[in-house]
Design brief:
CATH topology of one domain: Alpha-Beta Plaits
Radius of gyration: 25 Å
Largest sheet: 4 strands, antiparallel
Number of strands: 4
CATH class of one domain: Alpha Beta
Helix content: 25-40%
Strand content: 15-25%
Number of helices: 5
Structural class: alpha+beta
Strand order of the largest sheet: 2-3-1-4
Length: 175
Amino acid sequence: MTRSCVFALLLIAGPAAGQTPAAPPAATTRTFTAPTGLLFNTVRPERVADFERVIGYLQTALEKSGDSKDRAQAQGWRIFKAAEPGPGNTVLYVFVLDPTVPGADYGLGRILAEAYEPAQLQEIWRLYTGAVTSGGTLLNLTPVKPGAATPTPATPPSNTAPDRPLPPDADPNRP
């Protein structure tokens, strides 16, 4: 049985006695369609250390992967922690993916499942689900090139008087 299948079973199976159930991740893959992507993760302030441990596991998994797509993902994957509080006083982490790898799955579950044994994977996933407030928000970003759009012509100034008089110091023709 592959690690991915074991990971899926861990998510589907009910929690062991005394464990808090964790919501399984979305069934869809986390792929980007634009050259640059962002993933926002909101983390409970008291669980920042747990989330940063998960980031360490993720980085190790990407670096040691035998999959060329995973190694390419690692090259463009930078992680930032916002200085300002996130929604609901959470700690906001932003994953900047530049460039993205076309067709690559950026789902943390898949990447971790391919790198770790089931027992360790279950512990990593417990840290992750206990730390985050949701599954993260994905944004696809396409660069905007200055001057690429046709500018709208400016409206010529009208010769009508303004609706209200100008203050004396604003009119250069007034003594």
